[in-house]
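Re: the multi-chain job from yesterday

Posting the exact lines I submitted so nobody has to dig through the queue logs.
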Amino acid sequence: MPKLLLASGRIGTEALHTHIRIPFRLTEAVEELSINYSYSPKKYFGEDAYSMAYAAFKRSYPESEPIFKEVVDRELPLNNHITFSLEKDGVLLGTAHRHSPRNTFKISEKQASYGFYPQKLLPGEYFAVLSVHAVLEPVEYTLEVEV
Amino acid sequence: MRYYPFELHCHTVHSDGSFTPEELVKAAKARGLSGIALTDHNTASGVAEAVEYGKKYGVLVIPGIEWTTFYGHITILGGHSDINWTTVSPETVTEKLIKARAAGDVAILAHPYRVGYPVCTGGMNEFPKEIFSVLDGYEAISEDVGKPTNIRQTEEYYRLVSEGYSLSAVYGRDWHRNSEGKFAVTELGISGDLNVENALDAIRSGRTKITCGSGELLVTVKYGG
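And the result, structure tokens for all chains:
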């Protein structure tokens, strides 16, 4: 299966709350795109996890409301969370807002994986968009786009 | 005019929910809801299927999406606009909301006081205050009614309305799957036929109330006469 893109790299905490756009080109129309996307680690076990989660509760809870340890503990371990979208000419062809760190997405004219819109895959410049919702420590990602 | 119970914040397998579109519509029917808004995170790819199942089971499905940004979550109802969520930031959000509403959509701030980053990115609203002038609704209560964050949401809602903002009170279960808890509904005061445009008009016009579904009123407000 011809590969259009094979990318890997490190996403550090400095990339928090950014969209990383990785271009690739289709020189002719194709029937289907297949995307393998993964990142690791998913879970964050740093010693500061509890204090960061507690601080988040403190910002949202009424001042007089107690914040119980077991309530904060339910949110641990914290997660790194980087979603995948596909974009062409500034238009999103779909977003996979999933919590799993390992996914395969397929898009064609007749059907598409959840989150994406079935469509003709015309020639042009596409972008794989990695949206860094949460990164608590450096994360390694791999991305493959095949036809 | 008659009030109909709706759930205006729902997710499916098209983002991170557990329901297929059909399962969501059937669950809404089982709860006695007249309608739902499908607001998957950053995609509307499940809407067409949900609308079809809505017709089959007799549940009105409002097309929608939840802009799940790094700085806050906003549900956009109507399906008229097509804004790339990755372009929504604190600097652009007002302009994007104006554009979505000009296209005919309704915008609601979701769970403004949910526990935010790093527990839930964008869960707590961090958008600038100017958005309150260009929103139609505000989730005065979200998820389980008993959550402490709802105390702040409801207080803030009444404060914003007292400052003159025209915001409808909306409930959002943020329904991803069936779970235990105490949940509410948004009742929409609809004139004429029960359809999407009349439901959107009820939200725009402030004809909303949050109830427990059995009639117990939790939040409502009237503004603009």
